[in-house]
Automatic annotation (TrEMBL):
Classification via Gene3D superfamilies: 3.30.450.40, Winged helix-like DNA-binding domain superfamily/Winged helix DNA-binding domain
Record's protein name: IclR family transcriptional regulator
The organism of origin for this protein: Zhihengliuella halotolerans
InterPro entries: GAF-like_dom_sf, HTH_MetabolicPath_Reg, Tscrpt_reg_IclR_C, Tscrpt_reg_IclR_N, WH-like_DNA-bd_sf, WH_DNA-bd_sf
Gene Ontology MF terms: DNA binding; DNA-binding transcription factor activity
Pfam families reported for this sequence: HTH_IclR, IclR_C
Keyword Cytoplasm: no
Domain of life: Bacteria
Domain HTH iclR-type, residue spans: 7-66
Domain IclR-ED: residue ranges: 67-236
BP GO terms, sorted: negative regulation of DNA-templated transcription
Keywords on record: DNA-binding, Transcription, Transcription regulation
SUPFAM superfamilies: GAF domain-like (SSF55781), Winged helix' DNA-binding domain (SSF46785)
Length: 244
């Protein structure tokens, strides 16, 4: 079957993207995999990097870009929200704190689902709220597993450091104390899609006097478990769709 769409530049760009499905790839390997000339592959790859459809790893190899993750997340957002609802209520009831799911959208993170604490002091974040990617435990989680260049870009002006993000990757969760808003603490953990990429963050948040200055010590286990349940639900949904 002829795979040509009749639009040459798009077909060539698709060949480059397809070649990266197996993982990080050098320019020479892209040339070999696509059969295109080196100048053509270089020009297409740089254009795709510009649009964040490709990125580069720490060794300078090309990788699939974060924009593809964002688009895939947007396509799966309904499934994410549907699965998140009951799990956030469960997390809120278990911890006694407001719970949220955040998804990255460009330079911001957006609250796509939440379960508010019904009484007492709470950190209210309505669905649809856009918050900075420069502060807060959810921002740390959404940035920590990005490709090298995107991670460096995200650290510009951030309230957290590379050392903090390294700790997030090692532990599998993040905490913050007054980063986003004075007096507010939070704990977050990554939600992974069927391809194991981080597509969202599960969080709880509330006043520091209640969560203490070590909120992760108290709540990380519950937050990580909820994020794992949500990741599993998304993988199950994806498997069912493939079988269907």
């Amino acid at each position: 079957m002829d795979g040509s769409s009749g639009v040459g530049v798009l077909d060539k760009a698709a060949m480059v993207l397809d070649a990266l499905e197996a993982g990080p790839t050098s320019l020479a390997q892209l040339v070999a995999a696509t059969g295109l000339s080196r100048p053509t592959v270089h020009r297409l790859a740089q254009a795709l990097v510009h649009h964040r459809l490709l990125g580069k790893d720490i060794h300078g190899r090309f990788v699939l870009g974060s924009r593809l993750v964002e688009l895939a997340s947007a396509a799966g957002e309904d499934r994410l929200i549907a699965a998140a609802g009951p799990l956030l209520v469960q997390l809120r009831d278990q911890t006694g704190e407001s719970s949220q799911v955040f998804r990255r959208q460009g330079d911001n993170r957006v609250c796509v689902a939440s379960a508010e604490r019904p009484v007492g002091l709470r950190d209210t974040i309505p669905i649809g709220t856009q918050l900075s990617m420069r502060a807060g435990s959810a921002a740390q989680v959404l940035l920590a597993w990005e490709d090298h260049q995107r991670l460096l870009d995200g650290l510009q002006g951030a309230r957290f450091t590379p050392t903090i993000l390294a700790g997030v990757r090692r532990r599998g969760w993040a905490q913050s104390l007054g980063e986003r808003e004075p007096g507010v603490a939070s704990v977050s953990a990554p939600v992974r899609g069927p391809n194991n990429r981080v597509i969202a963050a599960v969080s709880i948040s509330g006043p520091i006097e209640r969560l203490t200055r070590q909120p992760g010590k108290i709540h990380a286990e519950a937050v990580v478990a909820t994020a794992a349940q949500l990741s599993g639900a998304l993988r199950q949904t994806s498997s069912n769709q493939l079988l269907g």
